[in-house]
From TrEMBL:
InterPro entries cross-referenced by the UniProt entry: aa-tRNA-synth_I_CS, aa-tRNA-synth_Ic, Rossmann-like_a/b/a_fold, Trp-tRNA-ligase, Trp-tRNA-ligase_bac-type, Trp-tRNA_synthetase
GO cellular component, one term: cytosol
Subunit structure: Homodimer.
Localization: Cytoplasm
Catalysis performed (reactions): tRNA(Trp) + L-tryptophan + ATP = L-tryptophyl-tRNA(Trp) + AMP + diphosphate + H(+)
Binding-site list for L-tryptophan: 149
Amino-acid positions noted as binding ATP in the UniProt annotation, renumbered to this chain: 25-27, 33-34, 161-163, 200, 209-213
Keywords: Aminoacyl-tRNA synthetase, ATP-binding, Cytoplasm, Ligase, Nucleotide-binding, Protein biosynthesis
Motif 'KMSKS' region in this chain: 209-213
Gene: trpS
Protein name: Tryptophan--tRNA ligase
Length: 346
């Protein structure tokens, strides 16, 4: 195994590929927002980079999870990665809790993080207002675990939606703080935020982000929604009374649907405006729904096959965890040494 890992490493060094790390929480069913903001870009980037794609189950338990749902979704998220086009031969796909270095580095980095900066994270402020006094300490420390995820792999690029930008900035601050306190240890990662699709909005309240934790199922499209459900949800999507397909901040519902169509079909915004001129919204909405169905249906079919093949998924996450641990452990050892811990004797 070690020989194979060494060989892998040598090949990667020879290719001199930069490193990508990203992840999705198995805290709810994945949405079209997760797909367009993150996953679709991972698929595009995977050939140029040495990629680590993680199912971040440790992040998911910052809010209450039903154990059997968490188990099912963790495997389903992995299956979605593969079905969407991530090649497990090229990229390292793994489950976060299988690589203990994530929790260990998170603890160490917690000791270099300020409560004030964590309190200022907008996602924490939003979520803590929802949970009141029973908000978990895990939710406050969540971005530190995310920083550990990224920094363990000496990551160059992190492809995420815009809602993760602030967490990326904190990751960079923590890395710089540690590097300055000791000596260069961590690579400073850059975010990769797509120009369009970085924030897919709710279909019911288009001024809010489409979110898997919303209480209203009409507000989001799930990656696994059947075609007839997708069509229904899009036909019910909130637009406006103007009846013009135009890319404008005054028409947030229409703008969101245009972005979805543009990111799925590649048709330019100008071409979309022209195509539906003088036609109202009915045909436009139908076409948006078809574009989503065309993209998601083949993925859904593959996911259904993959989730019945537990042995295959197990072989992927076992190999992934070995590959990830090898790199993660090297970084962690370096960090422990710099802090002044006594190395474990062999
Ligand atoms: P999560 O699980 O909330 O979302 C996963 C990815 O989907 C993106 N996303 C969206 N993009 C566009 N429009 C939307 N409506 C939308 N909703 C979600 C997110 O930006 C994200 O890229 N903390 C992270 C998971 C994480 C992580 C990491 C990411 C943990 N460690 C290290 C990158 C690197 C999260 O909660 O994502």
């Amino acid at each position: 195994m070690v020989e194979k890992l060494e060989q892998n490493k040598v090949e990667k060094l020879e290719q001199n590929k930069k490193v990508i790390f990203s992840g999705i929480q198995p805290s709810g069913e994945l949405t079209l927002g997760n797909y367009l903001g993150a996953l679709k870009n991972w698929v595009k980037l995977q050939h140029e980079y040495d990629c680590y794609f993680c199912v971040v189950d440790l992040h998911a338990i910052t809010v209450k999870q039903e154990p059997k749902d968490l188990r099912r979704r963790t495997l389903e998220v992995m299956a979605i990665y593969i079905a969407a086009g991530i090649d497990p031969e090229k990229s390292t796909i793994f489950i976060q809790s299988h690589v203990a270095e994530h929790t260990e580095l998170a603890w160490l980095l917690n000791c270099y993080s300020y409560v004030g900066e964590l309190n200022r994270m907008t996602q924490f402020k939003d979520k803590s207002s929802k949970y009141g006094s029973s908000v978990s300490a895990g939710l406050l420390n969540y971005p530190v675990l995310m920083a550990a995820d990224i920094l363990l792999y000496q990551t160059d690029l992190v492809p995420v939606g815009i809602d993760q930008k602030q967490h990326l900035e904190l990751t960079r601050d923590l890395a710089e703080r540690f590097n300055n306190a000791y000596s260069p240890t961590f690579k400073i990662p850059e975010p990769y935020i797509p120009e369009k699709g970085a924030k897919i909005m709710s279909l019911q309240e288009p001024e809010k982000k489409m979110s898997k934790s919303s209480d209203n199922p009409n507000s989001f499209i799930l990656i696994m929604d059947p075609p007839e459900v997708i069509r229904k949800k899009i036909s019910r999507a909130v637009t406006d009374s103007l009846g013009i397909v135009k890319y404008s901040d005054n028409q947030p519902g229409v703008k969101n649907l245009m972005i979805i169509l543009n990111t799925l079909t590649g048709e330019s915004i100008e071409a979309i405006e022209k195509k539906y001129e003088g036609q109202g919204y009915a045909k436009f909405k139908e076409d948006v729904a078809e574009a989503i169905v065309n993209e998601l249906k083949p993925i859904q079919d593959k996911v259904k096959n993959l989730t019945t093949d537990k042995a295959y998924l197990e072989s992927i996450y076992k190999e992934g965890a070995k590959r990830a641990s090898y790199i993660a452990n090297k970084t962690l050892r370096k960090v422990q040494k710099k802090i002044g811990f006594i190395p474990v004797s062999k």
